[in-house]
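Supplementary Methods S3. Complex input for the L263DTV3-bound model.
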Amino acid sequence: MLQKTKEEEPKKQLPMSMENHKMTVMPLPKGRNSSIQAFIPACDSTGNDGDNNNITKNLPFSKHLHFDVCKCNTTWLKPTTSPFPTQRGCNAVDPFANPHDRNYDQWIIQHPSALENFKEIVASSKGKSIVMFLDYDGTLSPIVDNPDRAFMDDEMRDAVREVASCFPTAIVTGRSRDKVYKFVKLEELYYAGSHGMDIQGPKKGPKFAKIKEKAVVLFQPASKFLPLIREVYKLLVERTKSTPGAKVENNKFCLSVHFRCVDPQKWSSLAEQVNAIIKEYPNLRLTRGRKVLEIRPIIRWDKGKALEFLLESLGFADLHSVFPIYIGDDQSDEDAFKVLQHRRQGAGILVSKSPKETGASYSLREPAEVMKFLHGLVESNKVTVN
Ligand SMILES: O=P(O)(O)OC[C@H]1O[C@H](O[C@H]2O[C@H](CO)[C@@H](O)[C@H](O)[C@H]2O)[C@H](O)[C@@H](O)[C@@H]1O
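Predicted complex, serialized as structure tokens:
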């Protein structure tokens, strides 16, 4: 049964153009069991760790060819011209590789390394203003068992600080804004917490000429859901406490139920518990991340909408003069990749070591590569400026 939901319009003090952004109702998964299954990740035969639920084998090559930057079909035959050495060298397919590697090798042709194609990305951004969007978990910090200890190291912080000194930079995360700020600790950034439902501009005034000072003070399109979220948080804590390892995280406008430390035999019953609660609340919906179930208000506001909102608020609505770069690792980041695909603008970069169905044009394997990429951008900006 498709759940009938009320269409919720965020109350706005929005830029005029945002008023045209239609909210659409997200259909919830059909049927009890199918919805539960939809949220239970399974390890695949290639030995992936179960985070990557969208692993697809033998992806059709034409599926995600919405590249803003030129990606000639034959570039993979050439050795890399990137200044960055990578683990995999060039992208040529090895016909004798084992099936898992072959899947990766095919996938990487569609989503080539942002490091190996660094010059291409920079060339595409030439004459345009880069705006950086960075997810947090799995992108700036490694995935760890305890979400309260997902610290970002100082080297990464320096890299983000430097990038933010060159380009407007936003952290876009499922975490609460306060919590991610405690991890990142940089005042000069934009923060979009709770999957973009809690946006705040930099505490330190941005120095970019084009940006109106404090263009975004605070934007919280889901604020009226706050009492509901608090209520459901308590319920979830109460009802999941019998499942060892389960952890409920309050992300202010959304909630996370972590099952990374839960015995896989108990994943299904945990998902049933969560699902049963969500069924009682038609104004909430369930999505899935890396070993986490995410409970959010029904409004169609996500990381993609947050990206559009920030671009417009920053005065960067003009498609031709702006080059947004979005880096993220999780399912929720796909909403932002889709926006870039749709606008045929900028570059979406997925952080993943294994093939995943994605709307991102490029890939990076892990946070360490994200850091190299950020350093590269800073260096290339110095060359441009000087
Ligand atoms: O949008 P993000 O910044 O990627 O946030 C998505 C979720 O990230 C966090 O959970 C993930 O990272 C944890 C720490 O490494 C890990 O233990 C967990 O399994 C991952 O799903 C965060 O704790 C969640 O609330 C966010 O929804």
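Residues 367-385 form the longest helix (19 residues). The pocket of L263DTV3 is lined by residues 135-138, 143-145, 147, 150, 173-175, 249, 251, 256, 258, 260, 289-292, 294, 330, 332 (CB under 6 Å).
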